[in-house]
Amino acid sequence: MQTSKSSPTNPVVLPASYTSQTPHESFPDTSNGNLTWHTLISAPQTSTQDLSAGIAVCLPATGHLCAHRHVQAELYHILHGVGQVTIDGTVYPVSAGSTVYIPPDAEHAVVNTGSEDLRWFYVFPTSAFGDVVYRFSEERA
User: Fold this and answer.
1) What is the CATH number of domain 27-134?
2) Cα-to-chain-centroid distance, residue 84
3) CB 3.0-4.6 Å disulfide test: which of 3, 71, 72, 112 passes with 118?
4) DSSP state of 21
5) Where are the domains of the chain?
6) Residues 52 and 123: beta-carbon distance below 8 Å
7) Residue of 111 and 50 predicted with greater confidence
8) Per-residue pLDDT, 127
C-alpha cells in the first residue's frame, strides 16, 4: 500500500570524499571544548527534511566538549575510540558501537579518555544545524 505525502522527500547521498573536501569546524578558542565537527546533513541541502547530522572528533589527551544544553534532543553513535559522556551529572563510558540518547535540554559533555581519536556521529531533529543554540554551563544563571 502506498501512502501519499504532502511534500516530496528528496534523498541526499554524499560521496565518501565529501568529508575530506569540505571544511571542518571548531570553536574559536577551547573555552567551550577542544574538538572539531563536520556537518553532513543540514538545510539548505535537505530543506524538506527534519534532521541535521554530522561527525565530531575529540583528539586524545585534550579532546573534550564542555557541559552544555540545547532544546533539541540529540543522538550520538560512537564510531571510534573510547570516552565518557556525562548527562545531567551521570557519567557513561562509551566506546565504538555505543549509542547515546540525550534528552531535550539535558546538560551533557564529552571527554576522550583514550589514546586514539574519539569520533562520533551526531543527529539533531532539526532541519538546520544553525538552529541548535548551545548554552554552556557557565552561561546559566
Assistant:
1) 2.60.120.10
2) 15
3) 112
4) H
5) 27-134
6) yes
7) 111
8) 57
DSSP H stretches of helix in 3-90: 18-21
Tell me which residue has cell 541526499: 12
Radius of gyration of the chain from its Cα atoms, rounded to whole angstroms = 16
The verdict on whether omega for the bond into residue 44 sits within 30 degrees of 0, i.e. cis, is yes
Amino acid identity at 43: A
Other CB atoms within 10 A of residue 35 CB = 26
User: If you write DSSP's letter for every residue of 78-129 in order, what string do you get?
Assistant: EEESEEEEEETTEEEEEETT-EEEE-TT--EEEEE-SSS-EEEEEEESSS-G
Instruction: Tell me the β-bridge partners of 75.
Output: 101, 123
Please give the distance of CA 77 from its chain centroid, rounded to a whole number.
9
Is residue 94 within 8 A of residue 78, CB to CB? The reply is yes
The Cα 109–Cα 111 span in angstroms is 7
